[in-house]
Amino acid sequence: MGHWLQRNIIEPGKLPLLLALGAFVLTFVITRVITRLIRAGKGPFGNVRAGGLHIHHVIPGVVLTVAGGFGAVASRQGVGCGVFAVLFGVGAGLVLDEFALILHLDDVYWTEQGRKSVEVVVITAALVGLVLAGFAPFGVNGLSSDELHNRGAVVASVAVNFLFSLLALSKGKARTAIFGVVVPLIAMVGALRLARPGSPWARRFYRRRPRARAKAGLRAYHHDRRWAALSRRAQDWIGGRPDPQPTRLPDRR
Predict the structure, then answer these.
(1) d(CA 200, CA 141)
(2) Distinct helix (H) and strand (E) counts, the chain
(3) pLDDT tens digits, one per residue of 53-107
(4) How many angstroms separate the Cα of 238 from the Cα of each of 48, 97, 120?
(5) CB neighbours of 95 closer than 8 A, spacing ≥ 6?
(6) d(C-alpha 34, C-alpha 22), whole Å
(7) pTM of the shown model
(8) What are the residues facing 53 on neighbouring strands?
């Protein structure tokens, strides 16, 4: 089955990556379904506890990621490589589903901060999907065979594309910079457009340019107004709606 897939559907050597991606996405979906059932008090599922301590699923996720990663490196090819790729995908799905917990060092799974986990999972799946589709980091896939044999051309291409991604990141466009690593045109667009307010680029270069500051703020406002609500609805549909934030009473001191 694996040989048939490699001959007819995917490029040679990419089957382990496909298995890892499938296991990653499936694990995330199953995990979110189970946690939403636990939250709603439905089904036979419940939180795992040991001695009164809540064992988050990031713990087995780390174990599976380490085992799958080292196992894949050791086996390199054959059935074993596919098995370890699946283990790695399952572990990565469990770990990134609680990415926000690792970032904040707090149980923020059902809070606004917990949305970061869903966003990171979606971005990771999209990037791996692009690699499976034939894209290579920093535009190497766009080079001809003669250019690939020329080390100088490869280094120059990687350096230029890396610079575009770095510029996009400095302008406060993290998603654009990340996807620009795989699709350089995206990073180029992000690097050429105005920076977001509060970004390192804006603080450094817009400090004495009030017109650029105002234009950047207006553009960011319209962008967020157009896409923020849609993004939040998509995150709620995928990962579940966060708990409502408690209303704070004004300080009367």
Answers:
(1) 31
(2) 12, 2
(3) 888 999 999 999 999 999 988 887 778 888 999 999 999 999 999 999 999 999 8
(4) 23, 11, 12
(5) 58, 61, 62, 65, 102
(6) 18
(7) 0.80
(8) 50
CA 250 to chain centre: 38
| Burial of residue 184 (number of CB atoms within 10 Å: 0-12, 13-18, 19+) | buried
Q: From the centroid of its chain, how far is CA 160?
A: 23
Measured on CA atoms in the order 30, 129, 97, 226, is the torsion positive or negative?
A: negative
What is the pLDDT confidence band of residue 3, given thresholds at 50, 70 and 90? low
The pair phi, psi for residue 151, each rounded to 5°, is: -60, -35
DSSP string, 132-184: HTT--GGGGGGS-HHHHH-HHHHHHHHHHHHHHHHHHHHTT-HHHHHHHHHSH
Side chain identity, residue 116: K
Coil, strand or helix at 54: strand
Can you tell me which residue has the tokens 């059902």? Answer: 110
Which amino acid makes up residue 6?
Q
